Amino acid sequence: IKRIERVGLSLLTAGAIQCKQCLFYKDGKCEEAEQTCTLKEDESCMIQTIFFPFSTGNLIHNLETGCAINCKNSEKSSATQLTVTYCCKHRNFCNDPFLPLSVF
Fold first, then answer.
1. Distance from C-alpha of 87 to C-alpha of 49, rounded to nearest angstrom
2. Where are the domains of the chain?
3. Which intervals hold domain UPAR/Ly6 (predicted)?
């Protein structure tokens, strides 16, 4: 029975979803060393973008990727900014912020 449990655990690990992880992107590159994270139970890959739609110049202020617990797709706005969160777990690196939107 122990052998069966190990095989089952190996299959679960082999099927684990990987996500991009970066706290801040600038000019299309991660400002720090881009890493990956592996989804755990109740987690999703996440992209969170903060826009300043009424400012001049660059509209995107911050772009963050990673693994998030109980992630929910959302749009939150205030008088000056819009925060958009996208969550996914259908394939590896589904939170790549540079994939075309049609891929999501």
1. 12
2. 17-99
3. 16-97
List of E strands, 22-101: 25-26, 29-30, 35-38, 43-51, 60-69, 74-77, 82-88
CATH of the domain spanning 17-99, picked from 3.10.20, 2.10.60, 3.20.20, 1.10.3720: 2.10.60
pLDDT value of position 10: 38
Between the CA of residue 85 and those of 5, 9, 31, 34, what are the distances in Å?
A: 37, 31, 20, 19
Cα gap 94→20, rounded to integer Å = 8
**How far apart are alpha carbons 17 and 66 in whole angstroms?**
12
**Of residues 102, 25, 88, the one with CA closest to residue 60:** 25
Q: How far is CA 67 from CA 7, 25, 41, 101, 104, in A?
A: 26, 16, 11, 19, 16
